[in-house]
Amino acid sequence: MAGEMAPDEDAATLAEARAAAKTCRRCTLWRDATQTVFGEGPQDAEVVFVGEQPGDQEDIAGKPFVGPAGKLFDAILEEAGIERDKTYVTNAVKHFKFEPRGKRRIHSKPNAGEVRACRWWLDKELGFIRPKLAVALGATATLALAGKALPVTRMRGQTLAREDGLKVFLTVHPSFILRIREEADKQAERARFLADMRAVRKLMG
Ligand code: URA
User: Fold this and answer.
1) Which of 54, 81, 160, 187 reaches 20 to 30 Å from 27, CA-CA?
2) Tens of pLDDT, residues 160-184
3) In what order do the strands lie in the sheet with 167-171?
């Protein structure tokens, strides 16, 4: 209603935004998730990495990229000479979306409405951090950062300039590498992702 403020609308700092996001009801994903998984890293980070959404382990830990995709991501960042602790790592969508299957929770891709709803938080993070560069890890992050769907596998390695001046580097999601069964193909994709991270390192200056 006009004149009424949602509790999250007066977040004046990144820490306040993080606290407000804990009770986010901007879409329905909060209902089944354990908790909001907000971004992590220093407010003066030069680069912000954006994934899709927390996975099973992130949902439980309350931290982004701590599961299998996160471990691969960490290893490749280290090889590329990027210190994760000096970057800010977040997701386009901040609640885990899944389908229960027996005792397991199977990742389910967030839809465009959920991505749009959660852009509120991503915009807050980017607004407080004001990074030199944002890195879109995969299609969902690209949608959130570019505001439209783009063919990531064709455009990977490219840097877009948004109207607000933010540079957005496009690449695939590390879980794409984990899903490849054939070892030679997996290693080839790992090498391509490492090359992308080295390019990010150069853009960071
Ligand atoms: N995949 C993501 O996109 N984000 C995470 O935090 C973990 C896995």
Assistant:
1) 160
2) 999 999 999 999 999 999 999 999 9
3) 88-91, 47-51, 133-137, 167-171, 159-161
